[in-house]
Amino acid sequence: MNESVRNSRFLKAVRLEPTDATPVWFMRQAGRYMPEYRALRSKTTMLGAIQDPELAAEITLQPIKAFDLDAAILFNDILTPLMGMGLELDFVEGRGPVIGNPITSLADIEGLMTPPAAEAMPYTAQAIRLVTAELDGRGLPLIGFVGAPFTLASYAVEGGGSRNYEKTKRLMYHQPEAWASLMDKLVHVLGDYLLFQVQSGCAALQIFDSWAGTLSPRDYARFVAPYNARLIAAARESGVPVIYFSTGTGTLLRAISALGSDVVGVDWRIGLDEAWAQIGYDRAIQGNLEPLLLQAPWEELERQAKAVLEEAGGRRGHIFNLGHGILPQTPPDNVARLADFVHEFSAKGVVR
Ligand SMILES: Cc1c2[nH]c(c1CCC(=O)O)Cc1[nH]c(c(CCC(=O)O)c1C)Cc1[nH]c(c(CCC(=O)O)c1C)Cc1[nH]c(c(C)c1CCC(=O)O)C2
């Protein structure tokens, strides 16, 4: 990582250092809301795009070229590491991701493979190298990522998206040893994949635990938190900062803070001020505008973006983001305007 990336707004905020303005990036910033993305994606499949390093690099850079953002996130998906483990992943148009051979038994878990990321996902390293060659010149960091073990286990067990996670919870409650063995394998594969992304050039890592909010605090503490803590510790060994992001977890924030990530990402279901008080001011926070607001009239969007910045209270260590990914119907102009507004408003001195 070069000096200008090290001294980027984003990495300074992560280290709780003062910045000239609040850094901003958006989850799913490369995606279907951008006409440039739709043009490239229409020529191939989701997996085809992910596995083509030049295409993946170009898609990653599209929002960086279009908007004034403070970080890029690699174009990929949280589910790709499951393929190397022997699970058949497909992205079905209009339906989302599907696993053709979901896990149903202890024998299935024992049969899961744990190949090194360098073997299973060499295309990721190539894409990262192409992206960082461009980002280095702009002084911008690239964020690598994985899905958290629980969120990935839920896809592996349910076979796709789910409303109530019944099969996943049944595995936890009925076969706790099988659950532990599945989570162990995921921690192993994901930890190795995170280190591989840093070795390839990523300057920060994010762990997406998008579905953790379905769990009771007791079950989160017993069945999920220990694996997250292990994964975060392994990721931090790489020397780059780690963001832990989840949704629907306003009641779990103390447990989440104890996991030891450098940054905690929060969704819009809790005020940023209340969330930060629980997480602790010795830790950076990322969030948390409701994504649907990017489709609202500018006056409403501006009012609510301002409210998020005011809730951050001028403290060091706020990274502006949405509470979840950008939605496909979002007008790109609002993304441009919001990024500029965050910089201009925070530079006025509300935030230091
Ligand atoms: C649960 C989950 C998935 N993927 C992801 C999560 C966790 C975070 C979240 O909740 O948003 C995370 C994800 N997905 C994608 C990224 C890349 C980085 C980023 O842009 O933030 C990341 C970090 C690209 C993607 N992943 C997907 C797309 C859309 C692909 C397309 O049709 O072009 C993109 C850009 C597909 C995907 N992938 C997944 C679903 C449910 C879908 C279908 C939903 C949809 O179609 O929007 C699984």
**Largest sheet, spatial ordering of strands:** 1-4-5-6-7-8-9
SS field, number of helical segments? 17
Distance N to C terminus: 25 Å
Structural class: alpha/beta
CATH topology title: TIM Barrel
Range of strand content? 5-15%
CATH class: Alpha Beta
Tell me the radius of gyration.
Answer: 19 Å
What small molecules does the structure contain? coproporphyrinogen III
Catalytic activity: uroporphyrinogen III + 4 H(+) = coproporphyrinogen III + 4 CO2
EC number: 4.1.1.37
Protein name: Uroporphyrinogen decarboxylase
InterPro entries: UROD/MetE-like_sf, Uroporphyrinogen_deCO2ase_HemE, Uroporphyrinogen_deCOase
Structure description:
It is globular and about 60 Å long. α5 runs parallel beside α9 and α10 packs across α12. The chain has 352 residues and is α/β, with parallel strands linked by helices. The relative contact order is 0.14. 51% of the residues lie in helices and 12% in strands. The longest helix has 25 residues. The model has no long low-confidence stretch (mean pLDDT 97). A seven-stranded parallel beta sheet has the order 1-4-5-6-7-8-9. It has a two-stranded antiparallel ribbon with strand order 2-3. The protein has 17 helices and nine strands. The protein has a single domain, classed as TIM Barrel, CATH 3.20.20.210. Coproporphyrinogen III (CP3) binds next to β3 and β4. Catalyzes the decarboxylation of four acetate groups of uroporphyrinogen-III to yield coproporphyrinogen-III. Homodimer. It comes from Calidithermus roseus. It catalyses: uroporphyrinogen III + 4 H(+) = coproporphyrinogen III + 4 CO2. Pfam families: URO-D (PF01208).
